[in-house]
Design goal:
The structure holds two protein chains of two kinds. By secondary structure, chain A is α/β, with parallel strands linked by helices. Chain A is 41% helix and 15% strand. In chain A, α9 packs antiparallel against α10 and α11 crosses α12. The complex binds iron/sulfur cluster (2 copies).
Chain lengths: 308, 222
């Protein structure tokens, strides 16, 4: 065990894991966090806490993670390299682990021009793969990034990374994932999957490379709310591919039935993903739709969650 | 070459308002080639300023000159008399030229007429693109000639990130994704295996992050 986190235990036991996602508020409204915690608690093994996602300023991932711990829910602290250099990164990791955070997801982060502070200067001192490698070194060798100096204490983290099979060059994506695994990723979560055929092809290569044996691969799913969102995502969000057939299903149902259809599609996808070799869990991103998590996971027969 | 954009006329006008005798100096090297601050552009700005001066009764007297290079003392020194006669000097060179002219003639204030933007090249008629950020530790051997520091929006060393879209960068559909280019170039040359290795954390001391840089070459010193 590298971290003793619940997520690590569930995955290591060979259970099909479920992680959720919680976006902190655009301010310090604690009630908003607690409301989301209430909707997720008991339904998932751990919850990703986003780090100023889409470069919009939000309550810090570390602080929100600590609130989750206090409320009895396990966080996966996300950390992007957009806003921190190696000094801040390591200092934040020490602080986070001292507060009891046991899972960390290493990301590069959306470019700042997308967010609400587009005039900001970015950092990108290191990239996401270098971050994974650095955290692995902190944990396993107890050395600071890029030096032989010893750290005081122990950094027990279950190290995660993200991957996207749906960004070009497609043929390279399994190999880039391999780099993340080599750097030290223990679990990886994908971008939302809608194109099953493409994902299966990706997984075939990933398994041929032996990645499923070296790390836990979790498949990302996001329920579609309505036809408008589906069409928008299909057209405008880079790195997301939604096949026409799904766009059609969402568009063909009457408006008031769209949410139901979206959930139905999501449940079908989860069932299909469970059958794919190498997929060890799902990462359910029901963003601003946390109230549907319980329903989706009940229908997908993933509840109750294992106690390990 | 160094590429720059001329500042908006409003900003230039405001800078020059306190003065009467203005010496406008162009530079005949990079900034002239990128059509921002050479002899021709000095002429254009001088005429604009003269019109404004007439319309708004600024009383400006504009003298124009363009030297070969504002980053070298030997080209700047012959301007001594013109500097002496002016209340203020406005440079149309890159930031190096502005500063160096002021260093050669410290008794005069030198104002910038240009926003210096990047080191780049003229890829097509009327189009310049950034190519290098002067990071001080070149990795072009590892990427077969495509710079990840200057050309990837996140300066990634192990790209491409998950945001590439049809070969374009997530930041802007008009920007090529540098890592998509690097991938294809390595593939063309049969060197995709070069991507297998994780490019490790680098030092930024060689770039601006180690403080301002200088070089002393003894062999050139006598
Ligand atoms: S790696 Fe550094 S020196 Fe080389 S082209 Fe890029 S910025 Fe310039
Ligand atoms: S899309 Fe390409 S160029 Fe843009 S940040 Fe990602 S890797 Fe860099």
């Amino acid at each position: 065990m590298r971290s003793e986190s619940n997520l690590e235990k569930v995955l290591e036991k060979g259970e099909f894991a479920v992680t959720g996602e919680l976006g902190p508020p655009k301010g310090n409204d604690l009630e908003l966090v607690k409301k989301k915690i209430g909707l997720l608690k008991g339904n998932v093994d751990a919850v990703n806490i986003t780090d100023n996602q889409t470069a919009v300023v939000r309550m810090s991932s570390i602080a929100t993670s600590k609130i989750l711990i206090d409320e009895g829910l396990e966080p996966v602290m996300q950390m992007v390299v957009r806003d921190r250099n190696r000094i801040a990164i390591q200092s934040d990791i020490f602080g986070a682990t001292a507060l009891g955070i046991k899972n960390m997801l290493c990301l590069s982060g959306d470019h700042q021009t997308f967010g609400n502070q587009p005039d900001a200067k970015n950092v990108f001192d290191i990239d996401s793969i270098q971050l994974i490698d650095g955290v692995r070194r902190l944990r396993d060798e107890k050395k600071f990034f890029g030096t032989d100096e010893d750290i005081e204490g122990e950094v027990k983290l279950f190290i995660g990374a993200a991957f996207n099979p749906f960004a070009e060059p497609y043929e390279y994506r399994p190999y880039r994932l391999k780099k993340k695994v080599q750097a030290g990723a223990n679990f990886v979560q994908s971008q939302c999957i809608y194109d099953m055929k493409m994902f299966k092809e990706f997984m075939k290569v990933a398994c041929d490379l032996g990645l499923d044996e070296k790390c836990h691969i979790m498949a990302g799913v996001t329920p579609l709310k309505n036809a408008g969102m589906t069409k928008y995502m299909a057209k405008n969000v880079p790195g997301i591919i939604i096949p026409d057939e799904i766009v059609k299903r969402m568009s063909d149902v009457p408006k008031e039935k769209a949410a139901e259809e979206g959930i139905k599609i999501c449940v079908e996808q989860i069932q299909e993903l469970r059958e794919i070799k190498g997929v060890h869990g799902i990462h359910l991103m029901a963003i601003e739709w946390e109230e549907k998590v319980h329903e989706i996971l009940t229908q997908a027969k993933l509840l109750p969650r294992p106690v390990v | 070459m160094i590429v720059g954009d001329r500042k908006p006329i409003e900003e230039i006008k405001e800078m020059l308002t306190p003065y009467k005798k203005i010496l406008l100096v162009g530079c005949g090297t990079c900034i002239s080639v990128c059509m921002t601050g050479g002899e021709k552009e000095v002429g254009i700005l001088a005429s604009e300023l003269r019109i404004i001066s007439d319309l708004e009764k600024k009383g400006w007297e504009i003298t124009e000159d363009t030297i070969q290079r504002q980053c070298e003392r030997e080209y700047i020194e012959p301007l001594k008399e013109k500097f002496d006669q002016a209340d203020v000097v406005m440079s149309m060179a890159c930031g190096v030229g502005v500063q160096y002219m002021a260093e050669v003639f410290p008794h005069k204030i030198v104002l910038p007429a240009v926003n210096t933007t990047f080191y780049g090249t003229n890829v097509a008629e009327g189009e310049w693109q950034e190519r290098c950020a002067g990071c001080g530790d070149c990795v072009l051997d590892k990427t077969l000639g495509i710079c990840p520091v200057a050309r990837c929006s996140k300066g990634l060393f192990n790209g491409p990130c998950g945001g590439t879209d049809k070969g374009k960068c997530e930041v802007n559909k008009d920007l090529d994704c540098a890592w998509y280019l690097i991938y294809n170039r390595l593939k063309e040359h049969g060197k995709l295996d070069m991507l297998d290795e994780v490019m490790s954390i680098r030092s930024w001391k060689s770039s601006l992050h180690g403080g301002p840089r200088k070089r002393v070459r003894e062999e050139a010193q006598k």
